[in-house]
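So, read this over?
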Amino acid sequence: MKTLLIRFTLFALSFGIFAGVLSRGPNYTVTWEREVPSKEPLSSLNAAFLDPGSWPVFHHALKSVTFFDHGKPIADFKQIAPGMTALFAIEPTEKPWKRFEIRAEVLAPLPGEAYRFRMQGESTGKTTRLLDGFEWWIGVRPANEAEAKRGNVSAAFGGAKAETKTARARFFGRFTPKIMMNQLYQMDLVRLANLTETREKLIREAPPKH
């Protein structure tokens, strides 16, 4: 028992030193990117971006998204343009008390991207306390040669980047950058890449309407 206690103490001390080293220094930019091959036609994936009802399909827990042009909501997603504001209402399944909102500026997408956003605010304040200038993006493209050989015809891609603000953010940004950014990235590239299957699953699991 004494030996185990000594080992645990040494481990805790070592980890504390390790964490201190990773959290030291100036703030820096954390970047995360991912690509997911898809058998969905490129036209179907692009069409999902223009359908308001499809946005919850390729997000983790999106209840709704509204785009505003000079304070006025727009109904036609074909009108989405840089400079507009997007309001994302996030609500984990069957946990309405955990609902929160993200307000973002619509940025000009880089070549190949469908959309790019910059966070302006988040109702819980958790993200903005850790990170500054949080940006995220999403897009689709034709499958490359290697992906096509495996039967894919397209691919969904996306990513996020932000500047660290605190020692905690610097630590996780160095120790587990993929986990940290993936948790903050509300879009789900796997669900988008499997759009038809995802829609069918959501229909099957939807609660009955009374």
Summary: Residues 28-205 form a domain with the Alpha-D-Glucose-1,6-Bisphosphate; Chain A, domain 4 fold (CATH 3.30.530.20). Confidence is low (pLDDT under 50) at residues 1-22.
